Amino acid sequence: MNRLTKLTTAAFALLLSASALAEISAREIMQKVDDRDDGDNRVADMTMTLIDKGGSKRIRSIRSYDKDKGEDKQRIMFFLTPADVQDTAFLTYDYDAYEKDDDQWLYLPALRKTKRIASSDKSGSFMGSDFNYSDMTRKNLDANDFRIVKEAEVRGSKVWMIEAKPKTQEEIEETGYKKSLLFVRQDNFIVVRAVHWTNEGKRLKYQDVSGLEKIDNVWTITKMTMTTKKGKATLHKTELGFSNIRYNQDLEEQFFSIRQLEKGLM
Question: Which residues form the signal peptide (predicted)?
Fold first, then answer.
């Protein structure tokens, strides 16, 4: 094949690729977001910084473990510092099946008690942060209607702006959001920015991924924020930082259990 033929073939392939992207539906895009390779058997150190409207900060350190179980995902998190949250732990079973509610448990060491998070409580704040309990699992695609609003750019990368609307009031009450605008990168299908219209209080939540890198060939979020605003006023902000991220670790399934949640890290 001569050089001109190769260039023509490459150009034609690019045109086909661009055409395919142009014809993709919002639902198909969100399915690719859900299906993308996000690694397995992951261990990471997390820093959660809570910032109030006056700028005061509270910093928490967390150890997080993630494991795939078929199409389902499991996560267990242990709060290490400061003393007021030390040994608090969170366990979630994120089910792929639409008809199955995700399971979540929170261990409170002061009470020596594990609390199961009910569906009616999942719209509540996760450990005083700007993230809801519902944000700690994948979005239920079948529970939402999606449409492409337009294309744009975020930090130099092309994105689709996709509107997501829950189909039922029950879903709105469980997630805490009556509508979301999602910014999905076209090259890796990661939601790198989002705006959430909350169900109560006329507040907006602005989610932003400011750190993103490839680790073990997996696109990995290393820094993100969630900011709660009312009008132009910032009410609260949460920053999450991820470090020492390792994939393909030796994590046993029994580690993701209520027993381990209460036992803690040794």
Answer: 1-22
